[in-house]
């Protein structure tokens, strides 16, 4: 039996939520309120074991209409910081960062990466243990050819979802080490509350802020579907 296709959609402001949502019980999809009054509908996906689920944003499988709407909201928030540069955390934020930069009138953006090219400085990286790669450490790099775009510049970092906060912490540390003034990290969705503890790192609190255009809780199995874990709202 083939796997179901991924679907996400934007519902306009004023749309009605399913009646079950009043009891914080969801079936199939979750409606994420966005700060402009619109709603992002994304599928609920069980985690291994089947007793918990997440609302899954797969940015590279969304329609152009969805990513354009989300990028527009990110750009509105980014404009408040008057950044010189938009920086993308790999990999899903690559769907948004170029659009955000263009909407701000920039002629380029920078993309950090997980692979080390032969011309990179082997000492300039930050390690990440993300929620999607819990066993293997990743290293976050920036191509040295891009250093002039961040050194001494006001930078806004863009990502898709922040859950543990590990990727954002690594990005802020790396860019700051390279001379950037990281004004903020803007994400499509904040997820749960674990990231808030990570963002208490003195390095981040002294350099940057984190803002999302929507928030998703975590979910636990329920007889009628998936119940919101109240502690993660």
Question: What can you tell me about this protein's structure?
Answer:
Strands 1, 2, 3, 4, 5, 13 and 14 form a seven-stranded antiparallel sheet that branches. Helix 2 links the parallel strand 6 and strand 7. Helices cover 21% and strands 30% of the residues. It has six helices and 14 strands. The chain is of the alpha/beta class and 233 residues long.
CATH topology category name? Rossmann fold
Strand content: 25-35%
Cα(first) to Cα(last) distance is: 35 Å
What is the helix fraction of residues, given as a range? Answer: 10-25%
The computed structural class is alpha/beta
Order of helices and strands: EEEEEHEHEEEHEHEHHEEE
- Count of folded domains: 1
- The beta-strand count equals 14
Count of helical regions: 6
Q: Give the overall silhouette.
A: globular
In the CATH hierarchy, what is the class? Alpha Beta
Keywords for this structure?
globular; 233 residues; Rossmann fold; 6 helices; single chain; 7-stranded antiparallel beta sheet; alpha/beta
In short:
The chain is an alpha/beta fold. 21% of the residues lie in helices and 30% in strands.
Strand and helix map with partners:
Blueprint: E1 9-11, E2 25-26, E3 29-33, E4 39-46, E5 52-55, H1 64-79, E6 85-88, H2 97-103, E7 110-111, E8 126-128, E9 138-140, H3 147-150, E10 154-162, H4 166-177, E11 181-191, H5 194-198, H6 202-205, E12 210-216, E13 219-222, E14 225-228
Parallel strand pairs: 6-7, 6-10, 10-11, 11-12
Antiparallel strand pairs: 1-4, 2-14, 3-4, 4-5, 5-13, 8-9, 13-14
């Amino acid at each position: 039996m083939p796997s179901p296709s991924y679907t996400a959609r934007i519902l306009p402001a004023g749309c009605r939520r399913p009646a079950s949502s009043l009891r914080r019980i969801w079936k199939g999809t979750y409606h994420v309120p966005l700060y402009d009054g619109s709603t992002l509908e994304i599928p609920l996906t069980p985690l291994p074991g089947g007793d918990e689920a997440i609302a899954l944003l797969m940015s590279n499988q969304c329609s152009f209409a969805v990513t354009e709407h989300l990028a527009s909201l990110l750009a509105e928030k980014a404009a408040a910081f008057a950044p010189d540069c938009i920086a993308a955390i790999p990999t899903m934020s690559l769907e948004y960062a170029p659009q955000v930069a263009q909407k701000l009138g920039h002629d380029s953006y920078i993309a950090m990466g997980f692979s080390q090219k032969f011309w990179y400085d082997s000492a300039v990286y930050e390690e990440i243990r993300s929620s999607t790669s819990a066993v293997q450490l990743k290293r976050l790099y920036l191509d040295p050819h891009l250093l002039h775009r961040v050194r001494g510049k006001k930078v806004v970092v863009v990502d898709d979802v922040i859950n543990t906060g590990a990727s954002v912490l690594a990005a802020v540390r790396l860019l700051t080490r390279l001379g950037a003034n990281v004004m903020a990290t803007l994400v499509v969705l904040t997820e749960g509350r674990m990231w808030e503890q990570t963002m208490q790192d003195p390095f981040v609190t002294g350099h940057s802020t984190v803002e999302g255009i929507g928030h998703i809780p975590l979910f636990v199995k329920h007889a009628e579907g998936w119940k919101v874990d109240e502690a993660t709202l």
